[in-house]
Amino acid sequence: GIHLAPKEELNIPVLFMPDAMKMYKAEVVVHVMKENSENWTYDLSAESNRDLNSNVSLADKGGLQGVLWRYPVHGIPEAPQQKLVVIRCPARQRVEQRVEMLLFGVVPDEPAARNSDMANTDDSANIQEVQVTDGFSATAEFLYELQYQSNEIRSQLESLVGMDLVQTEWDTESGIVTLVFKVVFTPNKPVRIKATLVIRWAKGGVWKFPMLFIAMESEVDDVIDIEAVGLNKESIAGFTLTSQTR
Fold first, then answer.
1. What Å distances lie between residue 225 and 235, 236, 238, 239, CA to CA?
2. Residue 42's pLDDT band (cuts 50, 70, 90)
């Protein structure tokens, strides 16, 4: 019963209050009719008749009683940002660290329903394997990805950081999932770069873990001793530097 003047705008509020970390689907349907309750006339064609019943409401005596617009709504709950994870390593060295990420609010469905839903998702082909790629990596029902603040930072850090999901523990009673990652950091110079580990559940939940990678000054390679041969005379010591690139 909402009356709209020509070119008037209507805001439709949508409230989302999830009770579990999974995707919720709904549809907002806008039904428009003439103010004087008259019907529209129309000519049917083979092309227009295909989706006619879902896009209009037909009058009993012929004609169109109303026109429908359908807006699908996907509600994806996102957990509050988690505690900062810091990975430290001296430059030109390698550190390997196990990091545990706790995911709260994961409520499993019934096994039969879960298998049916997983078969209908676009990511079902990647669910059964674990692989580290430039984008998302998949294992079981979780996807994870390291996101950077810019493409420049990604190009700097992507070749220096490796992440591999090595263990998954799911406590169905508490709804807590523990993901254990093996993080490898091999910096070649002192850096301090932030990144975000984004974990998505195939059912729709999202968790974000801020990470800070710190490469400290490298250790001294060697000590060069130059022994003086006399006052006001030059003493020379030779040493070799090897470049890691061309």
1. 10, 10, 10, 11
2. confident
